[in-house]
Amino acid sequence: MRNFDENTITDAVLDRVGGAQDPRIKQVSEALVRHLHAFLREVRPTQAEWELGIGFLTRTGHMCDDKRQEFILLSDTLGASMLVDAINNSAGLGETDSTVLGPFYVEGPNVFENGADISNGMDGMPFYVSGTVANIEDRPLGGAVVDVWHADDHGYYDVQNFEEHGLAGRARLHTDAEGRFSFWTIRPASYPIPHDGPVGDMLKAQGRHPYRPAHVHFMIEAEGCQKLVTHVFAAGDEYLDSDAVFGVKDSIIQPFEEHAPGRAPDGSLRDAPFATLEYDFRLLPADRAAQAA
Ligand code: BEZ
Ligand code: FE
């Protein structure tokens, strides 16, 4: 086969990739070709525009290393991460809503006791975070692994600002027998996602800001349950309705309450203003997650 033109090229490519042995690879390859060709037919790029697009993806790849994942940012800012999340985590059986993982999770965070201060000396308003982990029938999940991470009060993650404090605002905790966890840290601020690369250029060209509302990330794993990846967002934040990565859901917005000096929920006496967040997480049993898939 040869002499392909605008009317014959799509079928020719579909025919070629349709020979894939693995049925999933065949399905994905065919869908990719159909949608890519439909995109090009709709947009009708000039040769120069197509080269610009290839250049954009090349710069995106070159920007990636073990500290910066520009392709995740691209997926997040185009709503692809939230769409994949919605496809895979929407059983709606009373489990806590999930949201994007983002690029700042670090595998194997340091383990802390409940009640510990995980801020590693970062400046900011002291922030007491506590809650419970249970299944959707409200059975407390003791021994659940609760990984938390958050930005500082200027909106930077420790891994972006490593020289200053090392790992900070990042911990692994384990729930007690009643499913409770707690820690002290500092109240995180809203922040711009990294926008000094091709994704930042794209946002600017699309007339968008790069900000995310203030939040604390949680990744929670308990035996027999589906892993939960989510955040809790600060109620009242100015970016809740325009999150750069489309991650906000009403059910995971909670007040970050500010308090005058005095007694904190853990009984300690604070001589400066502090903030608190309390959130109860509900995990989906793995068999229910499999049925819902
Ligand atoms: C984050 O919340 O850490 C994040 C999520 C998506 C893109 C950039 C940052
Ligand atoms: Fe974040």
How would you describe what is shown here?
With 293 residues, this protein is α+β, with helices and mostly antiparallel strands. It has two domains: 9-44; 73-292, Sandwich (Protocatechuate 3,4-Dioxygenase, subunit A). Helix content is 28%, strand content 22%. The chain contains eight helices and 13 strands. Strands 3-2-7-8-9 form a five-stranded mixed sheet, with no helix packed on it. A four-stranded mixed sheet has the order 4-1-13-10, with no helix packed on it. A hairpin with a 5-residue loop joins β11 and β12 (269-270). α1 runs antiparallel to α2. It is globular and about 80 Å long. Bound molecules: benzoic acid and fe (iii) ion.
Write the layout of secondary structure elements.
Elements: H1 9-17, H2 23-43, H3 47-62, H4 70-77, H5 80-88, E1 126-135, E2 145-150, H6 162-165, E3 170-174, E4 180-186, E5 191-192, H7 198-205, E6 211-212, E7 215-221, E8 228-234, E9 253-254, E10 257-259, E11 262-263, E12 269-270, E13 274-283, H8 286-292
Parallel strand pairs: 1-13, 8-9
Antiparallel strand pairs: 1-4, 2-3, 2-7, 5-6, 7-8, 10-13, 11-12
Helix pairs in contact: 1-2
The protein binds benzoic acid and fe (iii) ion.
